[in-house]
């Protein structure tokens, strides 16, 4: 679920202190997108939303989230945004966040 190698790589690149700040910003940004998708999903924005989530997830090592968002981004780009199931995205994010915060 979490690519701990990527997490450690990022910590080494930016330093332990800055890593905490980066992680906090990431979680806030992703929480905002997830909240909007839960309250007001707009299939016309799914490609953009999934791209944003994928990039953020990839940067911080949330591998499973990155993978499902990549798949959903491609689905939306092919004009099938209305076919995207958001619940798996929410579930994977919640599980990843719990694991990430528990092991930091």
Automatic annotation (TrEMBL):
What is the scientific name of the source organism?
Aliiroseovarius halocynthiae
- Using the record for this protein, list the coiled-coil segments as residue ranges, or answer none: none
- What protein is this chain from? Hpt domain-containing protein
Residue stretches making up the HPt domain: 8-104
GO terms in the biological process aspect are: phosphorelay signal transduction system
* Residue list for modification Phosphohistidine: 51
Q: Name one Pfam family in it.
A: Hpt
Starting at the broadest rank, the lineage of the source organism is: Bacteria, Pseudomonadati, Pseudomonadota, Alphaproteobacteria, Rhodobacterales
Q: Care to name a GO molecular-function term for this sequence?
A: protein kinase activity
InterPro entries given in the database record: HPT_dom_sf, Sig_transdc_His_kin_Hpt_dom
Q: Out of the domains of life, which is the source?
A: Bacteria
Keywords, sorted A to Z: Phosphoprotein, Two-component regulatory system
């Amino acid at each position: 679920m979490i690519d701990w190698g990527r997490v450690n790589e990022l910590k080494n690149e930016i330093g332990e202190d800055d890593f905490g700040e980066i992680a906090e910003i990431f979680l806030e940004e992703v929480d905002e997108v997830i909240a909007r998708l839960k309250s007001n999903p707009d299939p016309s924005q799914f490609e953009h939303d999934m791209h944003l989530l994928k990039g953020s997830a990839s940067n911080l090592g949330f591998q499973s989230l990155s993978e499902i968002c990549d798949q959903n981004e491609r689905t939306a780009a092919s004009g099938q945004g209305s076919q995207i199931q958001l619940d798996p995205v929410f579930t994977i994010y919640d599980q990843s966040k719990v694991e990430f915060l528990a092991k930091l």
